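so my prof wants the structure for this chain in the tokens format not the other one, which i didnt know existed until like an hour ago. anyway here's the sequence
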Amino acid sequence: MTTLLEINNWTGRSDDVYAPDMAAPEDDEPMSGHAMRFPDALWKEFGEACKAEGSSRSVEVRKFMVAKVEAYRRKQRRASSESAD
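here's what i got, hopefully its the right format
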């Protein structure tokens, strides 16, 4: 069975979705709901791991997404600067 995750906007806070220290982005960037599917066992264990670290699934997914985008941008900048040489 697969678990469906909806990452909601900032209007409906829930301890399961948001970590206690999590605040809205500084620039009040709007967030939309998006759905993703995960195997149930992975979803459950991921939640346990996040909770053990004092975090939440949403916080950790966002961290991963930010890191992935930052790596992509660095790669794009390197490629751009190399082609300019």
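also thought this was worth mentioning. DSSP finds two helices and two strands in the chain.
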